């Protein structure tokens, strides 16, 4: 279900035919149906069982994503979960090889429960059947195959305690109580909580460690506020003597570091002067074997001489960007995924001993029947001298000059765009628009100085970077200055609202998906489990008590009078991050002033649209909206 409301100034209905469009549109590659772009994948997210005998993956059953399994080497694949609502988007094996666990919320409320699928009986039960909670796995061990540790905010919605969960019996036992300042727990291979990350009053964080459950907690290290978003514990050695960190302590970029728990000494294992460490591959002892920097594309390097030929063999499997989906417990069999910019993801079963790979499946084979546009890395210099990276995707079959352009702003904002096949990007290109993605200041991956350059710059210099990107595209004769749209979700939705209210002469239309319109009301309505990050929000957006006028000055709601362009606003009614009121209040303000808008509300969605039928409805509306204002084509 969804509700669509039109603004005071009605829009004429669009007939999506080539005869009504510009001649160059007729030379575009064949139109890709929305169902192919935004429907369910045929198969995705494969994971090998710990014993290496079975493969699990996500695939639809009657249009709803469920977990399937098969015996490797046999054709006995079948669905083992029976969800008929939102679909399953995250799951894992248990080390006893009998159960699969998955997390799921209700209609987008993000109150995640942990469910167990018994592969022998194919029955599913909710292991965390409590109202209003959020739970997620926090520690697993091959030495305790029937037990896991979970984090859950059952006692206090603001705080996550640690519980031991027996996946066979379903019994839950409290292990560690959160004293009020712990944001993350570190668990060793013996399912003992050995570390805790605490939020400090100044916005920084400290890491507390203990040698055993009986020992006292001691602060092992502290990260300043400028470091906290670039710094995390990613593993603890099997003997518990070493931690592996990705952090920016005494460095601009986040480095891979080995930390000695007894002495506090650090050994730098990998670093890059421009990019943060992004990912690693580890051995059974959690020791890093290879490291990845997310540059324009993934860049892998071996850290272990014995693993180097294995990594080389992995990288030869496919010319896409490599990521490891899972591995058997003995690390002989690996599931490798490869990301491309103009084709669907591919997954392979890799044998470490023979260094050979077998294609398991292409995630969306129907998509590969169509011509997709290439995603090109770009960079430019901002007005105040920062180097800004991004990506440009152009339509196939059109001259690369004076094109209609969509500025597609990523969410987060502490996130980054990457080289990948994004169905939204491909929709824009296929319909006749260039798509510009910008890793504006505040984005992750480029070091802490770049990230912290976005502090208190929502609607300020972060938006300047977006406008500088548009100016770059115009100067390069890529974009038609009269046909530029701004589009985004979450922070990107906020940026779209800012574009329409702060810089209304730059854009001809805007699309906002679940974007906050008033930073004061947004900060006052975040989920309870975000309360512990209040100081972070105070320093990165503005203090909720002291900076009310500043926050209002950066809020699109209070600049509605500046709007000159038509807007499309979409919202999930159950969004716990950006409440429905954030969209409703700016819609009401526009309505009261007779400004043009379309408002789409999905009662059964949250912070984004999980159900394929809702995605298809939204993008039907969105591409029609863009076709009217940018002059491209749409499916109809």
Question: Can you tag this structure with a few keywords?
Answer:
11 helices; 636 residues; nine-stranded mixed β-sheet; four-stranded antiparallel β-sheet; Rossmann fold; alpha+beta; single chain
Kindly estimate the percentage of residues that lie in beta strands according to DSSP.
25-35%
The CATH superfamily label of the domain at 3-37 and 368-534 and 564-630 reads: Alpha/Beta hydrolase fold, catalytic domain
Structural class: alpha+beta
Largest sheet: 9 strands, mixed
Give me the oligomer status.
Answer: single chain
**How do the strands of the widest beta sheet line up side by side?**
1-36-35-34-33-31-32-30-29
How would you describe what is shown here?
The chain is of the alpha+beta class and 636 residues long. The protein has a domain at 3-37 and 368-534 and 564-630: Alpha/Beta hydrolase fold, catalytic domain (Rossmann fold, 3-Layer(aba) Sandwich), CATH 3.40.50. 17% of the residues lie in helices and 34% in strands. It contains eleven helices and 36 strands. The strands form eight sheets. Strands 1-36-35-34-33-31-32-30-29 form a nine-stranded mixed beta sheet, with helices on both faces. It starts with a strand and ends in a 6-residue tail after the last helix.
Topology:
Blueprint: E1 3-6, H1 34-38, E2 44-48, E3 54-61, E4 64-71, E5 78-79, E6 91-93, E7 99-104, E8 113-118, E9 124-126, E10 135-140, E11 147-152, E12 161-166, E13 172-176, E14 182-187, E15 193-199, E16 205-209, E17 218-223, E18 232-236, E19 242-247, E20 255-260, E21 266-270, E22 277-282, E23 288-294, E24 298-302, H2 308-316, E25 321-327, E26 333-339, E27 346-351, E28 356-362, E29 375-381, E30 387-393, E31 403-409, H3 423-431, E32 434-439, H4 448-452, H5 461-475, E33 479-489, H6 491-501, E34 509-513, H7 519-524, H8 534-540, H9 548-553, E35 567-572, H10 580-592, E36 597-602, H11 612-630
Parallel strand pairs: 31-32, 31-33, 33-34, 34-35, 35-36
Antiparallel strand pairs: 1-36, 2-3, 3-4, 4-5, 6-7, 7-8, 8-9, 10-11, 11-12, 12-13, 14-15, 15-16, 16-17, 18-19, 19-20, 20-21, 22-23, 23-24, 25-26, 26-27, 27-28, 29-30, 30-32
